[in-house]
Amino acid sequence: MPPCTLQQVWPAPLDVSPEQMALAALRHEIDVLDDQLLALFERRLAIAARVGKAKDAPSGPHLKLRPDREQSVLDRVVAQAAPDNREAVESLWRQIVGWGLARQGRVQVRVWSPVEPTRAFDGARLRFGDAADMKVARDPQAALAWAAEGHGVAVLAINAGDPWWIGLRREWGSLCVFDGFGGETPTALAVGRIDPAALPGGRRVLITAGGDAGDGSGLRRCGLDTHHGWSLSLTDAPVSLGGDEGCVGAIG
């Protein structure tokens, strides 16, 4: 019988400690999982590209963003995750959703935040993922005009010396607030040409005359900003977009 020509790659079993064998087995298991995750992720990207062309995707003047759908997907997967993993799962799924959206066209984001710009950018990056094309806006009015033309999303700071939000009741009626960043009390809002039917379920964003005194509607409100008799606030009441209540969007 001819001599064996195979070269031994791993050390002989006698030279491998039980700890090394266990570590090698765990690494192999991770490699297998990585291969499976990659295959599933690429399948999801392919389906996301098809969704962009499907009949139920927003069309016409609206951006291809479905905050309601994103909210339901995120809520579902986070609820299934172990409590210790929920923060990691939310961050991962934001990236997954963001790259899926990029297959329908990269989300363009303009950020205006003269105070703590890093905080606003971090919130926007977490929301839209690394796939989003994010740039600084020179002023809020330029960002609003850009968003109103349907180019993308404007993320604008509130309580930053410019009451840009009043314009959502006036010249920027085509724009909707659809998210907020900065914690339970937002310090920045995301606005864009969102299909009203696709707004997330959650607190409604109100712009009303009357400052902190309110407008007599009886809605319980959480104030965010005021300017010359105008008030920006949130309410848990299920008010409709537009109308006498001054609803201009929702925050999930």
Automatic annotation (TrEMBL):
<dbReference type="GO" id="GO:0004106">
    <property type="term" value="F:chorismate mutase activity"/>
</dbReference>
<feature type="domain" description="Chorismate mutase">
    <location>
        <begin position="17"/>
        <end position="108"/>
    </location>
</feature>
<dbReference type="InterPro" id="IPR002701">
    <property type="entry name" value="CM_II_prokaryot"/>
</dbReference>
<dbReference type="Pfam" id="PF01817">
    <property type="entry name" value="CM_2"/>
</dbReference>
<dbReference type="InterPro" id="IPR036979">
    <property type="entry name" value="CM_dom_sf"/>
</dbReference>
<protein>
    <recommendedName>
        <fullName>chorismate mutase</fullName>
        <ecNumber>5.4.99.5</ecNumber>
    </recommendedName>
</protein>
<dbReference type="GO" id="GO:0046417">
    <property type="term" value="P:chorismate metabolic process"/>
</dbReference>
<dbReference type="InterPro" id="IPR036263">
    <property type="entry name" value="Chorismate_II_sf"/>
</dbReference>
